[in-house]
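Hey there, shall we discuss this one?
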Amino acid sequence: MSLTLEGCMVNSVSSQTRYKSKIYAVMEVKGTSLQMQLDSGATCNVMPLQYVPEGINVNSPESTVSLKMYSQGEMTVQGTCKIPVRNPKNRKKYLVHFVVVDAKNCVPLLGSRAIQQMELITVRFENISLPETEINQVEESTKQCMTKEEVYSEFRDLFKGIGQIPGIIHLTTDPSVPPVVAPPHRVPVAMKPKLKKELARLEGLNIIEKVVEPTDWVSNLVIMTKTNGKTRICIDPKPLNEALKREHYPLPVIEDVLPQLCDVKVYSKADLKEGFLQCTLDEESSQLTAFQTPWGRYRYKRMPFGIKPAPELFQKLDQNL
C-alpha cells in the first residue's frame, strides 16, 4: 500500500509481508547439521553448551560474565571457544568465535558481525545515514583487511604447537608381505644432540612415544635439515610401503581449482603446520611406524612423513572437515 501526500510518495511498511521476523540457517558443525538463528542485533555469537562438539575446548571466562538479552533477561556465560562452521549451501568454511552459555531452550545464534562476514546478510550502507561515529568504522572495514599482526593477535591459539585434525586414520597392510625389522643406522655424532632435542619435542607434543614391547615392523630413522636450519625426522618406510595399501582418494589438480577462483578478489595462503603430524593414527597403525634411534625404539601416534598412503589420507581428512 502507498499514499500520495502533496506530490510525495509514502511507502508503508506492513507486518503482513514475505519478510520474516526471525531468520534461521542450517550450518554444519563437525558433520552435524545445526539450525542457527541469524541475529543482526546481536553483538556476539552464542552457542549453547549442549551443542559444543566433543573435543572443542571451552575457555573459562576470567570473571563472572553474563549476556543481556533483548528481553532484559540474563544468561551466565560458561566460556568462549572457536568452532569450525561449514555453510552447506556454498560449502564455505569458517572458524567462528562463540560465547558458550548453559541454556537448554536457547538455539545457536550468529551475531551481526559473523553473518555479514559469512555473506548471509548484506547491509546496504548506501541506503543508511550513519552517525558520524560509525562512518570511519565502516570505511575502515570496507577498505582494509586485517594485518598479519591483527590476525596473529586474534587467533593466537591457532599458531601454537601442532594442531589435530578431527578423525582417526587406519593404515591397511597386505598380509602377504612379510614384516621387516630394519637394522639400525649409525647417527653422526654431530647430529645426535639435535636429534635428541627433536625426539624430546615430538614426545612432549604426544606425536611419538617410546616403545618397549616387541613390534613386527621397525623402520630406520632419516634425519633432514630444513631450510630454516631446524631438524626434521622421518622414517625410511621403503619396506613398510611395500605392504601398505593406498587409499586411492582423489587429489585436487590445478585444472579443478582454477575455475573456482575466477571471481575471487582476495587471495590468502594458509599452510597447515606439519600437516601430516596433525592426523591421528589408531593403535594398530601406530605399531607399524616403530623406528630405531640410538636411545631405543619410538613409534608415531600421528601420521609420519614418507609413508605411501599419507597424501591421500591427509586430503581425505582435510576435505571432510
Observations:
- The first strand starts at residue 2 and ends at 5.
